[in-house]
Design goal:
Elements (H helix, E strand, L loop, with lengths): L6 H6 L13 H17 L4 E5 L2 H7 L11 E5 L5 E5 L3 H7 L5 E5 L5 H6 L5 E4 L5 H10 L4 E4 L1 H8 L4 H23 L7 H14 L7 E6 L20 E7 L1 E2 L2 E2 L2 E6 L5 H20 L6 H14 L16 E3 L6 E5 L12 E4 L3 E3 L3 E3 L3 E5 L4 E3 L12
Parallel strand pairs: 1-5, 3-4, 5-6
Antiparallel strand pairs: 1-2, 2-3, 7-8, 8-11, 9-10, 12-13, 14-17, 15-16, 17-18
């Protein structure tokens, strides 16, 4: 249903999620490190260096983002992991850490790069997300150490999701789909996009998430810009509505978009919505083990070009890739994009969002997620059934 309710009524009906997926267990963290050690050794390195961020969380459970203070793990191919951390953060680190590690601490007036360099073997692979400033300081402190890009190690571990990861992703996506259902109900002429964003954040919190991890709400012409415009849109009858939002469960993301019309769609809005729906389905149908990411992107584009859009990235048409990997990072490798020869394998997870932009008029993006199975693909949540039924 679109419209007919209000924020207070919809929030009052929400309670904390009861079917909660269990957090990642210690034995899975250990298996992840074993996989990383094998991949690191296979590329000719003696250790992997991982900075604070999603990859450190993946291997250790520590959910810290990167800051100006160096926090990092050195994972030797042989030996215990070493964690470099500010001394005053020790208590917090121990509370979050899910593995046993050799913790080495630095004071505020000391150079952590020197402390980390002292832990390095002759050849190291480095997390590509570690800031260049840190890498440069570490390299200067360890002039005899050979550094290489650890992207293949990181992606070689994180791209294939375990059953436990799939369950956490499933919960996050179910929660956000319920938020979409209720957000559509509160729409009324004159409502501002900022009001809807506040409702969505409160609804995610009511379900047990720590609020929305992000939220895009646009009406009318602003929907023709993939990430919107800075205005606080006001809803009018006949406007296209685009809402793109998500939350995190134990760090794992949802990221779902719905597009629909408030009121009665005109013929062009209906035609473009139907093309978007067909392109999204074509991408899903193409996804199976052994297919490349480029082939999935091509499948969506073929539908749009047959409908008179594009070609390529031209507008009216699809101005960006068809989808992205998702997990602990909302956008992560691999990507469903032209030219990518990355091969789909069971356990990979992707967004599917071949947005159509009609310049200066409106845009339609339907975004759902699937995971690759042994024989094809499976949706995490059901796609939008119709332009007047977003959920």
């Amino acid at each position: 249903m679109i419209g007919g309710s209000d924020a207070a009524t919809e929030l009052a009906a929400l309670t904390a999620w009861t079917d909660a997926a269990p957090p990642i267990r210690r034995d899975e963290y250990l298996a992840r490190m074993a996989r990383a050690r094998a991949l690191t050794g296979a590329k000719g390195a003696d250790a992997l260096v991982v900075g604070a961020g999603d990859s450190l969380r993946y291997f250790t459970g520590v959910p810290w983002g990167a800051t100006e203070r160096l926090v990092a793990m050195v994972l030797p191919v042989d030996g215990d992991p070493i964690l470099i951390c500010p001394r005053f953060e020790l208590g917090s680190l121990e509370a979050d850490l899910k593995i046993a590690a050799d913790i080495r601490l630095w004071e505020e007036d000391e150079d952590p790069a020197v402390l980390l360099a002292a832990a390095l073997p002759p050849r190291v692979a480095v997390d590509p997300a570690l800031a260049f400033g840190f890498v440069d300081r570490i390299r200067n402190a360890a002039p005899d150490t050979a550094f290489s890009n650890g992207e293949a190690v990181i992606d070689g571990c994180r791209t294939i999701k375990s059953a436990a990861e799939l369950a956490l992703l499933q919960q996050a996506k179910h929660m956000t789909l319920e938020v979409h259902r209720r957000a559509a109900r509160i729409l009324t002429p004159g409502i501002r996009a900022s009001e809807v964003r506040r409702f969505i954040d409160a609804a995610h919190r009511a379900l047990g998430a720590a609020g929305s991890s992000f939220c895009i709400v646009h009406f009318g012409r602003a929907t023709a810009f993939p990430h919107g415009l800075p205005e606080d849109d006001i809803l009018s009858e006949g406007d296209m509505v685009l809402i793109d939002t998500g939350c995190r469960v134990e760090g794992y993301h949802s990221d779902i978009t719905r597009s629909y019309v408030y009121g009665t769609p005109d013929a062009e809005q209906q035609r473009i919505w139907d093309l978007e729906k067909a392109a999204q389905q074509a991408a899903f149908d193409a996804a199976r083990p052994g297919v490349t990411c480029a082939q999935v992107d091509n499948a969506a584009r073929a539908v749009l070009e047959a409908g008179g859009l594009g070609p390529d990235y031209r507008l009216p048409g699809l101005p960006h890739r068809t989808g992205h990997g998702i997990g602990l990072s909302i956008h992560e490798a691999p990507y469903l994009v032209r030219g990518s020869d990355a091969v789909l394998a069971p356990g990979m997870c992707f967004s599917n969002e071949p947005m159509i932009v009609i310049p200066d008029r409106f845009g339609v993006r339907l975004e759902d997620h699937f995971h690759v199975t042994e024989t094809g693909a499976a949706w995490f949540t059901p796609p939008a059934p119709a332009i007047d039924r977003p959920v």
